Structure formats: structure tokens, C-alpha cells
Amino acid sequence: MTGNHKDKTISRRRALAVTGGTVAAGGLAVAGFQSAFADTTDTTADADATATATSTSSECMTLMTSVTEGPYYLDGALVRKDITEGKAGVPLTLRLTVVDATDGCTPVKGAAVEIWHCDAWGYYSGYTTANPGGSAPAESEEGDSANDLTYLRGYQIANANGVVKFETIFPGWYTPRTCHIHVKVHTGGEKEDGTYEGGKVNYTGQLFFADDIAEEIFTLDPYSKHTGSYTVLANDMVYDGGGATSGLLTLKAVHKKDPSKGYKGSLTLGVDPDAESTGAGSGGGGTPPSGAPSDAPTGTPPSDSASPSASASS
Questions:
Q1: Which pLDDT score is estimated for 60?
Q2: Are strands 263-271 and 91-100 parallel, antiparallel or unpaired?
Q3: Which of 6, 113, 251, 300 has the highest count of CB atoms within 10 angstroms of its CB?
Q4: Could you tell me which of 285, 306, 300 has the C-alpha nearest to residue 237?
Q5: How far are the Cα atoms of 41, 51, 54, 100, 105 from residue 47, in angstroms, in the given order?
Q6: How many beta carbons lie within 10 A of that of residue 216, not counting itself?
Q7: Element housing 229 (H / E)
Q8: pLDDT classification of 280: cutoffs 50, 70, 90
Q9: Where are the alpha helices (DSSP H) in the chain?
Q10: Contact predicate 94/166, CB 8 Å
Q11: 26, 222 Cβ separation under 8 angstroms
Q12: Contacts of 75 (CB under 8 A, 6+ apart)
């Protein structure tokens, strides 16, 4: 069963050409982003990071559940805080803390956290012709300033407290998946030519959103232009119901009465820095619901990128 909602109103050298675009185009006003990201000063970030490190060290969590990286991964994402590139949507400040779950949840300084997700209509950069299911305008119709090979992808390097922060938008959805963000934790590599090279992947996972918040967001513009059957958490083929250890984000509205102003999402990622993740993970199977594209994704990745892996429905 799915929850239905209706319409209510990269190679390294290529990375150098993109500067982490910050132009707010269409959809939500720039003021929304400013409100959502208003607490990003260095002083506040340092104070928050110290508080986070203290709380995680006293309540050590179990290892995060590793899952499939999905079919939309591209190598060579940029090291940057703001990954929006002008993509329209509800602002999302994402704060992740990487800790060593095998050693008292001590912060993993220098860990590279990589995220990628779809835009408000369900399209991924590098795969902009892939059918997101349901009914949605073509990705090109949004008219934004985004680079079609890099938008909504990026790395951040963890500080001494294991903390990274991204500025992005609330993801949309595509059939047959629930709303989610992909994440990898890397260690042992280094920043080079604007991206992150070398080392190994310690964790591959996905971040999830509470159903009530996601469905409220999807009634707003530009999300509402994508109509069809939305998969709730309980019916998702990847999320296993494990809460935070399975990637369920803690979300806080910037303005409780106005969700369009944005959300702050946070989660502590308990990883094993000595482990290596292949990206295969679990939850890669499942049969798309009736009417969904059986061979998604249909888009072709750029020839200089890594080949997509794992299930075509992840």
C-alpha cells in the first residue's frame, strides 16, 4: 500500500568548473534559505559541535545499518557545504556527526561525508531523463541554474568533533521509493582538485524523513507539480523501521506554522572506521508498484563518470 498525494495548487576536472552555485532560482524565496541557515556562524557551529560530541560520548549508539548505494551514484562530487546550485525547494540544513561506534563513540575527525539526492520532482543530476514515476514536468522545465551533472551532490570533511553540515533542499520522491538522501562515510583519503580522492568507504546508507513532514512538504510548490503514488516509510523497500540507526533523521521546523521556511535535520552516524563498505548493502530488491517504470532509471550517466551500481529501484 502506498500513500497517495495529489496536486494541490562527474570527473575531477569537471568539478573545477562548478563553484557550488548558491543562486536561489524559482520556487522559494532567498529569505527562506537565509532563515533556515541563520545559525551557521562559526561560533554557533563550534558550540553545537561540542555539545553534540559530549552527548554522543555518554550515550554510545550501535553501528548504523548499511544499505545499498542505489543506481544514481556518481564519482567526483565536489567538496562544498551548499549543494543546491539554485535548485528550488524547501530549505534543509543537514547536520551529521560521525562517531566511532566501536570505540566509545569518539568523533571521527577528518571523515569525508558524501551525500546525494533527487530534486523536488524526483530527478538526480547525471540522470535527468530518468522517469521519476507518476506525473512530473521534465527536469529541464524547472529553468534553474544548476549543472545537470553536479547538483544536489557533495562532500564535507568532519571537524574535530566529527561534525559536518550541508545546505540543501528537502528531496522529492520517485517511484517506488520513499523520500530519502544517500550517504557515504569515507576515511583515509584527501581533498584534491575540488573533490575527495583515495581512502575507503566505511559506511553506505540512506537518510529518511518522517511521513507526516514529507507529505506536508509535497503539497508545496514546486513539489506539488509531481503527482502520483508516494511510498510511505512502512512500505519502503530499503528503510527497515529501525529509527535513527536505520537513518531516520531528527527534523526541526525553522518556523512551525510555515514549513516552506525550511527544516533542520540531524543525525549521529555510528560507523566502524576500520570497516569497508562495498555499497551493495541490503534492501536493494523489491517490485515496483503497479504503474511504476519497471526499468528505472532510464537516464544515461555521463561517459566520464563511474557506472551506476546496485538495484535500479533504490
A1: 73
A2: parallel
A3: 113
A4: 285
A5: 10, 6, 11, 21, 19
A6: 16
A7: strand 228-230
A8: confident
A9: 12-15, 30-36, 42-58, 211-217
A10: yes
A11: yes
A12: 10, 11, 305, 306
At 62 the pLDDT is: 82
Counting Cβ atoms within 10 Å, is residue 101 exposed (0-12), middle (13-18) or buried (19+)?
A: buried
264 neighbors 36 (Cβ within 8 angstroms): yes
Write out the three cell numbers for 271. 560507523
C-alpha grid cell for residue 297?
A: 532509471
Task: Give the residue carrying C-alpha cell 545499518.
Answer: 65
> What phi and psi, each to the nearest 5 degrees, are found at residue 185?
-115, 120
> DSSP letters of 102-168?
TTTTEE-TTPEEEEE---TTSPPTT-TTS--SSB---GGGG-----TTTTTEEEEE--TTSEEEEEE
Q: How many residues does the chain have?
A: 314
pLDDT at residue number 237:
96
How far apart, in Å, are the Cα atoms of 304 and each of 149, 285, 314?
11, 27, 22
* pTM, to two decimals: 0.77
Q: Is the pLDDT of residue 310 over 60?
A: no
Distance CA 51, CA 35 (A): 22
